[in-house]
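re: ur question from earlier - yeah i can do the single chain one, its not a big deal. heres the input i used so u can compare w yours
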Amino acid sequence: MRKKPELSLRTRALQYLARREYSRAELRGKLLQHVQADEDSEPSSDSGGDLDALLDDLTARGWLSDARAATQLLHAKRSRFGSQRITHELRQKGIPEELISAALPALKESELETAREVWRKRFGTLPQDASEKAKQMRFLQSRGFSMEVIFRVLKTAEVED
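and the output i got, formated as tokens:
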């Protein structure tokens, strides 16, 4: 009777992983609530250990990968957001710092062009006054672009016109 909660956790984990990539920390958080629900009905002292063993097994089989989860998030967000916002989201999902550090140079390299494209899609015209300029800057800032990149985007737009 002890195997049923683990099977249930394994099934849930596979269902989550079938939909999209998860980081280990993110999947652990999703499954932890089910471990606690199982503990309420059947007391156990090492259910957290069962969860960690399950996550280790999924990682060993190649079904769970922080690197793939980070890559998926980067590809999904890269064309719309700046490096600050993407880095924040990677940290929220529990991606290890070494993977984030490895991804940063490529993000920074394309950040200016991404910011220009986001600005062009949203505004396309130079701000006419200080209020409009502040609005455009706040928008780009909310998308995770640094102030340095924002100034360069607006300055480049002025030069192009």
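Residues 67-160 form one domain. not sure if urs matches, ping me
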